[in-house]
Specification:
Length: about 270
């Protein structure tokens, strides 16, 4: 149990990965917990798993993907065990369900990346910011399709952070892509040269409000002022369920729905 709690704390303190990665890590933690559980009673096993799930759902309150995938996993596990016979192997059943959820999530993400890459065309000039593995893979996919374009990446250094997430994004892109990390105080100077903005998402609320890393809000307001389209690439597990109330973590922005041109989801 101690090792599992330590892994949950790692997710809580992780500042190097995006929401999609951390959501899958949360499911992997539940799989590990299931495999190491010594409970033979279904009710006790589910109670143990639910306790860990509740801890995970609260560890990154700006990232609804963790909440959604953990909730879906527990719903599926509860339903599966309610139909299983006494004496069924709880550990292997729970681990198998985790593997299936991870596989399905990665497949949907791959399909979304292909869909997002369709937006990018040769000779486009794009701006992005913060760090999103989905956005990075979308840009890489478009480039691998033979498209030649330019990417401006806001440095994305929050006043409350020591990590420049735009530099992380640039490092994840092939060196052969025409890319430039720009200072956050010069965003408007470069934005007027761009065709559109692409960002990822940590959460999209029911009213269309986007939660994403700094300085997404500033870029969105400036893009709206300049008449530049603002696109969000967002997996379905980043769409908040009804009643979800986010707590905005330090370094995250809220972007009103009216500033977003279109959310590419799947």
């Amino acid at each position: 149990m101690k090792d599992i709690i330590e892994e949950i704390i790692k997710i809580k303190n992780d500042k190097s990965h995006g929401a999609s990665y951390l959501a899958l890590e949360a499911v992997k933690i539940l799989k590990k917990a299931a495999l190491f559980s010594d409970s033979y009673d279904k009710d006790h096993f589910l109670s143990y798993m639910q306790t860990l799930a509740d801890e995970l759902k609260l560890c990154r309150p700006s990232m609804v993907s963790i909440y959604n995938l953990v909730t879906l996993y527990m719903q599926t596990l509860t339903q599966k065990l309610s139909l299983s016979e006494e004496g069924a192997n709880l550990n292997s059943t729970a681990a198998c369900l985790a593997d299936k959820l991870i596989e399905q999530t990665l497949l949907l993400q791959k399909q979304l990346i292909q869909k997002g890459a369709e937006l990018i065309q040769s000779h486009d000039i794009i701006m992005t910011c913060s760090y999103s593995s989905t956005t990075v893979e979308t840009i890489k996919t478009a480039y691998n399709q033979g498209k030649i374009f330019t990417v401006f990446i806001a440095r994305s250094l929050s006043p409350a952070s020591t990590c420049a997430y735009g530099e992380m994004t640039a490092d994840k892109l092939p060196s052969s892509i025409n890319k430039k990390v720009i200072p956050d105080n010069l965003i408007e100077d470069y934005l007027i040269k761009t065709d559109y903005v692409i960002t990822g998402a940590d959460t999209v609320l029911n009213d269309g409000t986007l939660i994403n890393g700094f300085p997404t809000a500033r870029i969105a307001y400036l893009a709206d002022k300049l008449g530049i389209p603002f696109y969000v690439i967002c997996e379905k597990h980043k769409l908040a369920p009804a009643g979800f109330i986010p707590q905005i973590e330090t370094g995250f922005d809220q972007i009103p729905a009216h500033l977003i041109t279109h959310i590419i989801s799947g």
